[in-house]
Every structure is written in C-alpha cells, then in structure tokens.
Design goal:
heterodimer; A: 289 residues; mainly alpha; MetI-like fold; 2 domains; two-stranded antiparallel ribbon; B: 286 residues; 11 helices; 72% helix; 0% strand
Chain lengths: 289, 286
C-alpha cells in the first residue's frame, strides 16, 4: 500500500508540469482565441457574439485569396522540398560512407542554427539588384545591366524551400537509416530496375519519414512570416501578414483572432488530409523524428 | 544498390547534385557573414578591402556592433530570455520524459499527441493566442479586482512563456528518446544494494540522462534565440535581438553592421551546436 501511494504521488507530481503547460499555454489560449474571434464590436466596449469576423473574411476576396495563395504556394514549397531533399537524404543514409555520413548530416543542420532573419538577409544580399548574383552576371558579361531577382514569387519560394528543407531531410535520413540494405538488394535480385525498387520498396518504407517531413514543412511554410515579407516585398500577400496587420496595425483583435483560427483550421485540414491519404498517424510520424 | 559502380556516370551526376545542394545551403550564410568584413557602407560588391570596423569601430557612420547600444541591449535580452526558456523547457521535458516512459495512466496516447501538438501549430498562432489570453486575464483582473498585473502585458515574461510553449515539446522528445534507452536493471541493482529512490535517481538515472538534458538545453537556447514569429506578438519594450535586427532592416535597410551581428551569431551558434555533438558523443562511448 505504501509503495502504491508513492507511485500515485509521483505520477501526480510528474503530471502537473505537463498539465499546467498544455492547459495554460496551449488549450486555454486557443479557447480564448475562438471566443474572441466570435465577438463583434457593436459600439465602443460593447460586444456581441456573431460570426461577423468570419463573414468579413468570406466577403472580402483579398482575404481568402491570400489564404488560398499561402496554401498553394506552401504545397508547392513542400513538394519541391521533398523532390530536392529526398535524393540528398538517400545519399546521406545509403550511399555516403560511414565517416562522410555524420559530416554531411551535420552540414545539413548548419542552417538550422541560424535564425530565419539571417537566412533571409543572406538571400537578399545575393538576389537584389546590387546583389552578388546580379554583379556576377554583369562581370561575366552575360547581362548588360543589373537584374533584380528579389520581390517576386520565385524569390519567396527559393527562400522558403531553403528555410524548410532541413525539416524534410532530417526525418527522411532517420527513416532511411533504419532500412535494411538487403531489402533493396532483394528488389534488384527479383528483377526490379532502379525505378521499380524506388517506387515499390524504398518509398513505401520511407513513408512515415516522408509524411513527417511534409507536415512540418507545410506547417512551417504556411506559418512563416519573415521570409515572404523580406523576399517578396510589399506584395508578398502572405496570410500571416494579414494576421499581423489586423492585430498590430489596425488593432482589430477580433478580426485577427478569426484569421488566426482560419489559418489553424486550414493547416490542420491539409495535414489531416495528408495523414488520411497516406494512411499514417501523427504519433508515428512527427513524434518519431 | 542504386549505384554500385563507383565510376558510373549516374553516380558522378548524383555526387555533383549533392555538391550543388550544399553550395545552395551555404551561399546565403556566406554572403551574410562575409560582408561583415567589407570596408564599405553597403553590404554589396565590389570588395573594398578587409576591415573589422563593423565590429569594433566606435564612430558613425561605421558604428560597430559592440558599440551599438540597441543591438547590445537586444543581445542581452535575447540571452536572458533564452536562458529562462532553456531551463524551463529542460525541466518540463525531463518530467514529461518520466511521465510518458515510466508512468501508467489512462489515455496516455491522447496525452502524448497533446504533447507533440505545439510543434505543428504555426508560431504566429501560438503568439497571438497567448497574447489574447494574457490580455483578457489582465483586463478582467483590472476591471473586477482593480489588480494590475504587469507581467501579463507584452514583455519578457510573455515572450519566455510563448517560446517555452513549443520548445518544451522539442526538449521532451529529445529527453524521452534517451530515457527509453535506459536499462532498468541498473536501477534494480541499485535498489537491491539498498539505495533509496532519491539516491537512485540522483546517482544513476539523472547522470544517464545528463547528455540528453544538456543537448536539449542547448537546442532550446538556440531555438529561443532565433525565434521571431512567436516573439513578434508578445514583445514589449525589451526587444530581443531578432526583433531589433528586423526593425533596423525595415527602417534603415541593410547595413554591414547587420552582417557583423549575423557573423557573430553564426559563430556563437556553431560553437554551441558543436558542443551538443560533443556531449552526445559521450553517450556512445559510455
């Protein structure tokens, strides 16, 4: 009985930090945000509950266009990150020698240790009209006058792929690492060519890693603020920018909260769809990496 | 294998692709760092010669970062915030690890998913939701009890809480992974030799977890230091470095002093990252 009490007590002691954290910093704030988003200001300091903030969103094409644009560009970023990152992860996990492997993996992680701001700043210095690439092209004579590579969608996509690709590569490397090489050899021995082996053996095996990478990548891209603004300039039209404008510039917290909920619902929906389509769960993908 | 022959054109092409990828990874970091040493008022080519003015000069127009009061202040606030976030996150990460590895309680899987959830919530949302709740609470207390709680208004405390809200997930995952590898027979042996629970925890289990706790602390410190999205909404008058730098960029435009700060931060985080590798390597030696 005595040791049972101790067990119970220690369980409660261990559970309380967890409960405080999740309750006070995650659950209650989100409930507060939902409540706030359902309030409509009818007179100074007088509010009533309504869906007015959500209707505003539907009635103003610029708002939902921005959300759709953010979503579709983030999907593109996710797809590009997977296409570019998969061969790199495969190389690190399966082709590089055991000594090169650790080094390459660490090299992959280096940009992770530098803030978004510095990464975007680096791209600005490379891409702008007076930047390194434009100057290089002038110097080689490939162009007669400086070229502005900044402030367009391509720059935003390059910057975002750069920012998120590590979160694609890391889970991919750890799943591919756990794969037995004999599975690949067996595929070849049974007469499969490189493409069949990739499609029938490697990709199904790596699926949890692929899904984990895609979820984190998509979420980071749709939720990013700095990269689209700094690389896309004034017309970047990213949804997080709308949230910031509502909150800080227009001081319309009710509208901002509604926009925040919409972004959250939208990203959750996409992630849920991704999990359903790939037959994975949150616990065996993101939690594992 | 997808390329057994060491000289096949496919493998050569593959290697070139990998090399190109690493150039892509390094390019913006090099350009951000290198222009800190260019003796020019603008972070752009042509190269005007080497200088350390952007670090140490104490006169305008080339005020170096170590004489720029606002940047130094930002650095200080970032440091204070990151220390608190790292300590809190390691503490909660450790209790979470014990909770989920050792504890038996109903709906454990559900709670585990709740623990991972903050990682998939956009940082902007975490920031505004915590801002909303804190302001609501502060307004309510002010209206009903005439109580003014300063820490619920945007400022350092809220920034720490906001960053902690998702960094705790990262540290929990790191420490949980380590605790799962723990061999329970080691504890049993100590119990059999007559050690108390507290003593076993202090002399056996916690030392085993220490590399993971240190690594998690460093990761938490770095993630806090570089965070922007969550911080943006919770920041008061004590702006951490990323916010100060962003302000500078928006108001003055790019200036090489920002490159100097970038270089400084890259070296700093590089050293810390190296430290995590060294700490983690101890693990395999044990």
């Amino acid at each position: 009985m005595h040791s049972k009490d101790i067990k119970k007590l220690s369980l409660i002691l261990l559970f309380s930090p967890f409960a405080l954290w999740i309750l006070l910093l995650i659950i209650l704030p989100h409930i507060g945000m939902v409540v706030l988003s359902l309030k409509e200001k009818v007179a100074p300091r007088v509010y009533q509950y309504s869906f007015a903030n959500y209707l505003d969103f539907l009635h103003e094409p610029i708002y939902w266009n921005t959300l759709l644009r953010t979503g579709s560009m983030s999907l593109l970023v996710t797809a590009l990150a997977l296409l570019i990152g998969f061969p790199i992860a495969y190389y690190i996990a399966k082709i590089a020698g055991p000594r090169a492997r650790g080094g390459l993996f660490l090299l992959c992680l280096i940009p992770l240790w530098v803030s978004d701001l510095i990464r975007s700043y680096g791209w600005i210095l490379l891409l702008r009209e007076t930047g390194v690439i434009s100057n290089f092209l002038l110097w080689t004579g490939m162009t007669g006058e400086p070229i502005e590579f900044l402030y367009n969608d391509a720059a935003v996509i390059i910057g975002l792929v750069y920012t998120v690709i590590l979160f694609m590569i890391v889970p991919l490397v750890s799943t591919l690492d756990g794969m037995d090489n004999s599975m690949i050899e067996a595929g070849y021995n049974l007469g499969g060519n490189g493409f069949t082996v990739l499609r029938r053996i490697i990709i199904p095996y790596a699926m949890p890693g692929i899904v984990a990478g895609c979820i984190v990548t998509f979420m980071l891209s749709a939720g990013s603020y700095l990269t689209p603004i700094l690389l896309g300039g004034k017309n970047s039209s990213w949804f997080t920018e709308q949230i910031y404008n509502q909150f800080i510039t227009r001081f319309n917290w009710e509208g901002g909260a509604a926009f925040g909920m919409l972004l959250l619902l939208f990203t959750s929906l996409v992630i849920w769809l991704g999990l359903k389509l790939s037959g994975q769960t949150l616990a065996n993908t993101v939690a594992k990496s | 294998m997808l390329a057994n022959n060491k000289t096949s054109p496919f493998l050569v092409g593959y290697r070139l692709y990998v090399a190109a990828f690493f150039i892509f990874l390094a390019a913006p970091l090099i350009s951000a760092g290198a222009f800190a040493f260019n003796d020019s008022l603008f972070p752009a080519l042509p190269w005007q010669g080497f200088t350390l003015d952007w670090f140490f000069s104490d006169t305008e127009p080339k005020l170096g970062m170590f004489h720029d009061r606002r940047l130094l202040q930002g650095l200080y606030y970032s440091f204070v915030i990151a220390i608190f976030v790292a300590m809190l996150s390691v503490f909660v990460g450790t209790t979470n690890a014990f909770l989920f590895v050792r504890g038996e309680f109903p709906a454990k899987n559900f709670f585990y998913i709740l623990m991972v959830l903050p990682l998939v919530i956009p940082g902007v949302i975490l920031g505004i939701s915590i801002l909303v709740l804190a302001s609501d609470t502060a307004n309510y207390l002010e209206d009903t009890l005439d109580l003014e709680l300063e820490f619920l208004r945007p400022g350092i405390v809220l920034v720490v809480l906001g960053q902690f809200s998702f960094i705790a997930t990262i540290t929990s995952l790191v420490i949980t992974a380590r605790l799962k590898k723990f061999d329970a027979t080691m504890e049993e042996a100590a119990f059999n030799l007559g050690a108390s629970r507290a003593r076993v925890l202090r002399t056996i289990t916690l030392p085993f977890l220490r590399p993971a706790m240190i690594a998690a602390g460093i990761v938490g410190f770095l993630v806090s230091f570089e965070n922007f999205n969550t911080t943006l909404f919770l920041v008061g008058s004590e702006a951490p470095l990323t916010i100060t730098m962003y302000d500078r960029m928006a108001k003055i435009g790019s200036t090489p002093v920002l490159n100097a700060v970038s270089f400084f931060l890259m070296v700093g985080s590089g050293l810390l990252a190296l430290l995590t590798v060294v700490v983690q390597r101890d693990k395999s030696a044990q």
